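May I ask for a sample protein chain and its fold as tokens?
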Amino acid sequence: MNITDLSGTTTLLNGVKMPYLGLGVYKAEGGKEVVDAIHYALDAGYRHIDTAAYYYNEEGVGKAIKTTNVPREEIFVTTKVWFNQQKYEDTFKAFDESMKKLGLDYLDLYLIHWPHPDFYLEAWKAMEELYKAGRIRAIGLCNSLQHHIQGILNLGGTVPMVNQMEFHPNLVQQDLLDFCKQKNIQYEAWSPLKRGALFDNPVLKKLAEKYNKNIAQIIIRWDLQKGVVTIPKSTKKERIISNADVFDFHLSEDDMKKIDSLDNNDRTGAHPDHFLEYFAKKGIK
């Protein structure tokens, strides 16, 4: 990944260019809050917005895109199919519902949100059809481990172009990252800042002082230098602008290793092999 500035992209295996820094909108309220956040981001130079059916704010995302001066073709939009809609026919319905809410003619990236063990391969086959029909520019996975990816590769069809995972200094999963690189599958980070839980980390504090940056900027730069697309979430204008101020410094190899060493396999979300039980305990279907 050649890191240049906020307009920079990585090229997916099918040739589609994906901005390597974007705005995540998980838990952003679907009305004014998400519209304002996206406008702040687009005005600051962001060109990548990541939402999902489960976030219940696709309509707000669509409104923000419609009401900005930035041309649609310059904005990379991602949404996702939730695990309870991954039967073959249900995936088509889910896609149509999302597109109606977003108000878009085409989607840049569609992801399987969590791979339902019984149905995610059905969802993939439906997504392949949507991709081949030109309704989606790229398709991929979210929260998928190597065996999930291998299940899709074994189908012998379209190779996933992206795998979006929980990724931060406490959860690197280097083996999975290496596997995706080997298969030319772009790795992408959700919760890159671990929901603020890393902001008191002494190693990161020292690095922030060394580079005259804040901890969020250190982590985001680490993501990019690891070759990982990243979508930090914020609804605050100042934070959105600050999160993109990562192109005037470079972490040394030693400092990259210091951040890598913080890996302790600690998750903020579910394990991809046990997410059904995780969500069931929370009453989420």
In short: The chain has a mean pLDDT of 96. The first strand starts at residue 9 and ends at 11. The longest helix spans residues 88-102. The beta strands are 9-11, 17-19, 23-24, 48-50, 76-81, 107-112, 136-142, 162-166, 186-190, 229-230.
